[in-house]
Design brief:
By secondary structure, the chain is mostly helical. It has ten helices and two strands; from the N terminus they run ααααββαααααα.
Length: 189
């Protein structure tokens, strides 16, 4: 019996994401540069990202879609910063027709571009894919909310996970991070 090891995507730090985005801006691949921002900030799977059209997001406050995997309706708020980033990339890409999809690469090609970019900017020993953007955004939210149970529960709902235990595994919460919780008891009563 042959056992296959399933590779899961790793999350990236905001510094690693910045380096990656800067690289794609430098080589003028504005689509992938926008994908990094958009995937990180919306927590969407690539199967949903690849269906987004400019008319869905340009000068919009919300993105409305049915998730492909779950068929659940999602309404995603497009904040001020993301709105500006979308407009900037739209202009840099030559104002394509509004009916065009924003991210026109196949999943395989996009993953290859991200892996090559990561290698170029020195991100080593990580499995990078489009899913890394979703994981990175999720991990960022959890960290920014002091790794609270409340943020974990909300993330579980946004990511459509059946439990917060699945979300914990998804975020890659390590045994060391769990062990760190006991450091809070390092005082005398």
């Amino acid at each position: 019996m042959t056992t296959t090891i399933e590779k899961t995507s790793d999350y990236l730090s905001t510094d690693e994401l910045r380096k990656l985005k800067k690289y794609f801006k430098l080589i003028q691949n504005h689509s992938i540069s926008l994908l990094i921002e958009f995937g990180f900030r919306t927590l969407l799977r690539y199967s949903d990202l690849e269906r987004v059209k400019w008319l869905d997001i340009l000068q919009k406050d919300e993105l409305h879609l049915n998730e492909k995997k779950t068929n659940k309706k999602r309404i995603i708020r497009i904040g001020k910063v993301l709105k500006e980033i979308i407009s900037e990339h739209y202009e840099e890409m030559g104002n394509p027709p509004l009916e065009n999809v924003v991210f026109g690469y196949t999943l395989r090609h996009t993953n290859r571009l991200l892996q090559n970019g990561a290698e170029f900017v020195g991100i080593k020993k990580k499995h990078i894919s489009t899913h890394s953007l979703r994981k990175s955004g999720s991990r960022y939210i959890w960290d920014e909310n002091n790794r609270s149970d409340e943020s974990l529960i909300k993330l579980s709902m946004v990511l459509n996970h059946s439990s917060s235990a699945i979300t914990r595994r998804y975020l890659g919460i390590t045994k060391e991070e769990i062990a760190d919780i006991y450091e809070g008891f390092d005082f005398k009563l």
